[in-house]
Amino acid sequence: MFEKLFAESGLSLDRLKAFLEVGSAGSIVKAANGEPVRQSQYSRQIKELEDFFRTRLIERQSKGIRFTPNGKELARLSRFFLLGLSNFQRGCLAEEQTFRIGASATFIRHFLVPALSGKSARNGGVRYATEVVAAEEIERRLHTLSLDFGVVATPGLSRPLQTKPLRQWELGLWVPKALGLTQPEAAEAFKKRTLPIVLARSELDDLGVMPAAEYEAKVESCSFIDALVAVQQQQLACVVPDFLVPAKSSLLRVQIPDLESSSFQFHLAWNPRLLRLNPHVIRTRDWLVEVLRDSPLWIPQRRLTRNPRI
Length: 310
What we know:
Layout: H1 13-25, H2 28-31, H3 36-53, E1 58-61, E2 64-67, H4 69-93, E3 97-103, H5 105-116, E4 126-132, H6 135-144, E5 149-152, E6 162-176, H7 183-191, E7 197-199, H8 201-207, E8 219-220, H9 224-231, E9 237-241, E10 251-254, H10 257-260, E11 263-270, H11 272-277, H12 281-293
Parallel strand pairs: 3-4, 3-5, 7-8, 7-9
Antiparallel strand pairs: 1-2, 5-11, 6-9, 6-10, 6-11
């Protein structure tokens, strides 16, 4: 059945592993950590795979390498095969499995880490590793199975990725009461781009809200949570999700039509191929949906009625 596949040398698990490592790193130099001997080894192993399959698998760019179409397909097949073997080995050795979850920094710090640290997370014989990953990168890595789960703000991912909804939320403009601005004054200053503000650029861009060119922020932060920390000095406004701001706070929510008209929803995303590799993933997926939907840290704010003065 497989006689032709093994009729000549050049195909091995070690070569496929090297091929995946180079593709993941984006260059042979990075995959080899700059070690000349390993660079030579990786180059030779990839060349041997290309000779075996009689096709180009990678092509060089100015900043590294990328897979050719045939290379992408071989990478997909190899990753699926090696993950299957890895899961089989773990099962035989009764080892815990580590699930890799990618999300925004805010979601990880506010929801994911508390959920994974709770009592219910002790059971199941699994471990978790979280990574701060941009939305587009989450989708790509779910396809390549280099992430097991991702949390995104849109369900419209490319096939065959699947999602389950978590919770809805909204963005709001929050202004410290210490600035002494009325809602209309703060809204006008925001419209004119003169309101001193801290913005979480990357997370806003992931949502397609307020591109970087629209506003010159006094401070740019890595996450919505960091933006809220900056606001504690009572000198800067911020645009953050409603679930981050307590009902009783020193901040005034200013209604901005462009922000108030949009609502968002977190979704847990995964690749169904992962379920075929390891049916036990279904239980983990369902547990994540349950604990993240019911998180006690989810405190959505009610819309505020107009109040001319603080």
